[in-house]
Amino acid sequence: MTDPAMTRRSPSASTALLKTETRLFLRNPVALFMALGFPAALLLLQGLLIPGTRTPLNGPGSPTALDLFVPMALCVVAASVGLTNLPSTLGGYRQLGLFRRLGATPAGAHRVLTAQLVVSAASLLLGAAVAAGIAVLALGAQAPRLPFAAVGIFLLAALSMLALGAVIGARTKSAQAANGLGTLALFASLFFAGVWTPGPLMPEPFASMAAFTPLGAATESLTAAWYGDPVDPLPLAVMAVWTGGCALLAVRLFRWR
């Protein structure tokens, strides 16, 4: 007969899987870099190696080029985790038959999927905190003028990237295939977000298209909130549509085998 006290002390299947997923993430140098290192490296490159990025653009007190890059760097965190880490993990688990094997156990395959989503979301939030801390505390960038709006916009951006990444990982049969597709989506998203070509310098029709991509809309909204400007509801609606649409599509397309 099972001791009730032992049952209470033993971790649930969900908790055990969450701990396992966390350990696997911490042992994966590529995933750690994409979540924590890549956005921080972009900020440090801008702030320390490129001349003039920390000089006010329009006199004392005005934003610097680095200030304008900070909201974009936070969006990069969401994209790098959502479009590379999450899909490659899902593809790798499908390749190894992990979903199939867990589906035949009381733990259930859905629990490892939930655990992976939780770990991805947590690493994304940690990466954003690291990037924002480096920007504000180490490089002297401006803090957000509308902090609550900025946090809300970032969370919506994160959801849209995780949902898009879930679509990529819904059917890919290997980690390599998922990583390849995710990397293509990442670099396309970074382009439309203005990482490679700033929005005002982006040629038409790409500039018009950028506002209707999830990361382009996220960058526009987060930049407005960061500097206290009115937030246009259209980019928020764009992110919400991408989030809902991709989430539904991922559920419909997801293959356990």
Summarize the structure.
The protein has about 260 residues and is an all-alpha fold.
Description:
This protein is mainly alpha-helical and 257 residues long. It has one domain. It has helices spanning 4-9, 13-26, 29-49, 65-96, 98-103, 109-138, 147-169, 175-193, 206-210, 214-226, 233-253. The longest helix has 32 residues, at 65-96. The chain starts with a helix and ends with a helix. The relative contact order is 0.14. Residues 1-10 have low confidence and may be disordered. It comes from Arthrobacter gallicola.
Q: What percent of the residues sit in helical stretches (DSSP H or I)?
A: over 70%
Determine the number of helices (DSSP H or I, runs of at least 4 residues).
11
Which strand-content bin applies to the residues? under 5%
Overall radius of gyration? 20 Å
Q: Termini distance?
A: 37 Å
How many β-strand stretches?
A: 0
Overall tally of domains: 1
Overall, the morphology is: globular
The computed structural class is mainly alpha
Oligomeric state of the chains in view = single chain
H-E string: HHHHHHHHHHH
Unreliable spans are 1-10
Mean pLDDT: 86
What kind of sheet is the major sheet? Answer: none
Q: What's the SSE blueprint?
A:
Elements: H1 4-9, H2 13-26, H3 29-49, H4 65-96, H5 98-103, H6 109-138, H7 147-169, H8 175-193, H9 206-210, H10 214-226, H11 233-253
Helix pairs in contact: 2-6, 3-4, 3-6, 4-6, 4-7, 4-8, 4-10, 7-10, 7-11, 8-10, 10-11
State the main characteristics.
single chain, 257 residues, mainly alpha, 11 helices, disordered N terminus
